[in-house]
Design a protein that fits this description.
The chain is α+β, with helices and mostly antiparallel strands and 302 residues long. It has twelve helices and eight strands. Strands 1, 2, 3, 4, 5, 6, 7 and 8 form an eight-stranded antiparallel β-sheet that branches. The relative contact order is 0.17.
Length: 302
């Protein structure tokens, strides 16, 4: 029997989440593969913080989501979801799912559609304009995804076949991504200069490959670093979780309400079964609380 590829696992109250780390050759493009199972009779609801692009597929008795301030709607069985800067509300009852997190370089190389096209939105994979092999992969995982070993082999084979030639922009995407992840990053001009671009060109570059203007990306990262510290230690007071780039707690609360459509206190009072599970497995693997804080270079160094 083949050894299980599962890197980390979390199970509680009818929710089971398993994380599989991509192999080294795919790690710059994919942050992880997630197998989620919600038991019969169990309904989970959660509010997911901003993240990078994803591919997801599954079937459930109830499968609804919305991004930002909107009404929940039924989600297609297989979707490509672009990078987000707003909360994703999610409701699932009795279902099984696979998800694959994409890095910005992975979005450029494997999806190919400009990231701003799907920013803060998701689309049926069969209508998304991506390579047909991705839609076939999601269909396979939805129908035959219970065998994790076979599923991971199929995922790896599909994406390896899509790598093709390395785009000329890939090294710049990677460098900008790492700069945005740095806790020292607080200047758009400094990152643009590092990338060898003038501000207007850099703005277009960020929208195409990251989905949002550079200033919005920096704002998203400081918010996620703060929320991540809190999620790793929910007993921590919010003021102790604040990123150093926040002026004060009021500044953070304004950002929180703009992103999550609620105050930090309201968020803390809600149960977070999916976020809690994702934080547990992601932190165990990569040492960070959220997918959008994943550093692709770390996987190459292991």
């Amino acid at each position: 029997m083949a050894e299980s590829p599962v890197t980390a696992e979390y199970e509680s109250d009818g929710l089971r989440l398993r994380l599989v780390a991509p192999p080294p050759d795919l790690a710059p493009y994919l942050s992880g593969y997630y197998r989620t199972e919600v038991s019969e009779g169990v309904l989970v609801e959660d509010y997911l913080p901003p993240e990078e692009g994803n591919l997801r597929t599954g079937a459930a008795q109830v499968y609804e989501a919305c991004i930002g301030d909107c009404q929940l709607q039924g989600v297609p069985a297989g979707v490509v979801s672009g990078p987000t800067s707003l909360v994703t509300q999610l409701k699932i009852e009795n279902g099984k799912f696979w998800g694959m997190g994409l890095t910005p370089a992975g979005w450029a190389r494997l999806i190919g559609v400009p990231a701003q096209v799907y920013a803060n939105s998701f689309c049926d994979i069969h209508q998304a304009g991506v390579d047909p092999s991705i839609a076939s992969l999601l269909d396979y995982l939805r129908e035959d995804g219970d065998d994790v070993v076979a599923a991971v082999e199929r995922i790896n084979a599909t994406f390896r076949a899509l790598l093709g030639n390395r785009p000329a922009s890939e090294s710049t995407i990677h460098a900008v991504h790492l700069s945005l992840l740095s806790e020292d990053a607080n200047s758009v001009n400094a990152i643009a200069t590092m990338a060898g671009m003038n501000p207007r060109t850099f703005e277009r570059f960020c929208k195409r490959h990251f989905g949002f203007p550079a200033r919005s990306l920096l704002k998203r990262q400081r918010f996620l670093r703060s929320l991540g510290k809190y999620m790793l230690d929910p007993e921590m007071h919010w003021i102790k979780a604040l990123d150093t780039h926040y002026w004060d707690q009021a500044h953070f609360i304004r950002d929180f309400k703009a992103v999550m459509n609620m105050t930090p206190g309201e968020y803390a009072e809600k149960p977070h079964p999916i976020v809690k599970a994702a934080v547990a497995v992601t932190n165990k693997r990569a040492g960070v609380a959220h997918q959008a804080l994943y550093r692709p270079g770390a996987a190459l160094d292991e």
